[in-house]
Each structure stands twice: as C-alpha cells, then as structure tokens.
Amino acid sequence: MQRDRDAIDAAKLYYREGLSQAEVAAQMGISRPTVAKLLQHARERGFVVIEIHDPQEAGAQVGDRLRALFSLDDVRVVHPPQAPSGAGDHPSIVDDLGIAGARFLEEVVEDGMSVGVSWGKTMLHVARNLRHTHTRARQIVQLKGGSSRSNLSTNNFETMNLFCAAFNAPALALPLPVIFDQVETKHIVEQDSHIADVLNQGRETDLVAFTVGSARRESLVMNLGYLSDAMVEQLVGVAVGDVCSRFYTHDGNIAAPDIDALTVGISLEDLRARPRRVLIAGGTYKAEAIETALWMGLATDLVIDEHTARRVLALHERRKHLQK
Description:
The chain is elongated, with a radius of gyration of 26 Å. It is an alpha/beta fold and 324 residues long. It starts with a helix and ends with a helix. It folds into two domains: 1-45, Homeodomain-like (Arc Repressor Mutant, subunit A), CATH 1.10.10.60; 58-323, Rossmann fold, CATH 3.40.50.1360. Helix content is 48%, strand content 11%. It contains 14 helices and ten strands. The longest helix is centred in the last third of the chain and has 18 residues, at 306-323.
C-alpha cells in the first residue's frame, strides 16, 4: 500500500535521520501537514514504537525491590552519570549521596530526637549538604571515636558541627581514638563519667545516620594509624566491610574479635536496636559491605546510587542461591 510506504519513509527521515517535519516535506515533495498525517499513520500502524526510558522510574523499581527484600521503610535511589567504561564509579556519586542523604534526614529528623552520627567521607558530604531547619533535635551524638594518628582526617568535628547547626542541637562528642592499643586502656577511659555518658547516649538514640566502609587497604579507617600492618592484613582477609568501625564478615559475624575489643563506639547489636537507622552509602566497591549490612538488619532506611543498588540485588540473589 502506497500510504504505508510513504508513512515508513517519512518516519525514517523524521525519527532516524532527525529531520524536521518541514525538511521531510521538502525532501519528499509533499506538504508539512501531509508529513504530520503520515507520521501519525506510522504510529497507528505500529511502524513506529516510541519508548521512554526514565532513569527515575527504573530507580524506583530498584528501590521497591530493595525495600521488599530487606524489609526497609524507605529507599532513596540517586542517579549519578554513568562512568566511562572501565573507569569504575562516577566521581559524583558521593556528592549525589550527600545531597539525597541530607534531604532525607531533613524530612525524618523531628523535634526532641536524639540523633546518632558516624563519620566518614560520605557522612561529611551529607553534613555539608544539610540546610538549616526549624527542627530542634535534643542532641547530636557521635557514635564512635574519631581522632586520627595519621595525616588523614576523619572530619568528625566538622560533621558533628554541621549536624548540630542544621538541627539546632547541642553536640555530644567522643574525643577519643576509634581503636585503642590495649583493651585495659580502653576500659579505663570508658569508665570516665563523661565518656560513659556519651557512649550510653549513643545506645539510646532515636535515629542513627551512618555509612559503611569497605574492607580495603585504601579505606579511611585502615589508614588512621591505629592498625598495625598485621591487623590490616587480618581484616582484609576476612572482612567485607565495617559499620562504625565494627568490621564484619559475609556471614554477619565480627571479623576480628580481638580488634573489635579495642574499638570505641556503638556495637552492631546496639545500633541494630535503634528504632530508625538510616544507611547512606554507594559505590560498587562497597556493594558487598552494603548487601551484608542490609542482610544483617542494620538499616531501616537506605540512600544508595542505582548502579550499586543493582549490584546489591545481584549479590543478594547469589547469597540466597548459596544458602539453598
């Protein structure tokens, strides 16, 4: 049928070649209204199928799957640009997570809440993106020690100060190393009334905001000067990640009990007992750490990037297959 042939020709020029309707009309020797009718005919006959791939919609589907699998209350999925092939994660991931994490916390932190906060690169970006709110939290509690023995900074003070400014609350800081040399020294320090109170307040928070770290030699906690080379090798060999510097294995066990005994801050058990637990993390190199943390039930809410979210889903499918 000639009308079908003309409709296909017009559709190819318009959709495939990118010509305007006026240019199609000139090339085919017909009027512009005729081109519009031919394009409509092409769509009606099924010669042209228009698909819209909305990354926001795709991300929502990923979020729904994560929410269902891990019994989460809320999942926010960010959509950073795709990194060049072989380049790993896009550098903007931590910025996007910081913005999304900050907006989410602005929604859920309420007057009178005691809010626990961990530190790290992701949490610093969250803190820097928090806006001043009218919410008056009761206090902002540092969940783990944060002083450094190396030239690297944990940025724990800046993170805490920005949270306090955003939610109009005083700080309960923990001005200690995150890992001590000796268990005996740690126990003595923890008996100080102020330190004991901060640690206890961390265990009683209404909401905690935290991230996960990967068990890689390059991770921040591995390079703060607390851990010997032997300790680092021990952790790299068995751990998949850490939450509040508590390293855990793929099976959800403490990776190195001897190192964990030296660590100052909230335990995984106490963190899991908090009523609202907001995990903000991304980057495919953290996927296994995130999947395990979710499987352990450490989070009630999640902010993550889409690419890592898909990797987490794949890892969880593999976990279920291995458990059969």
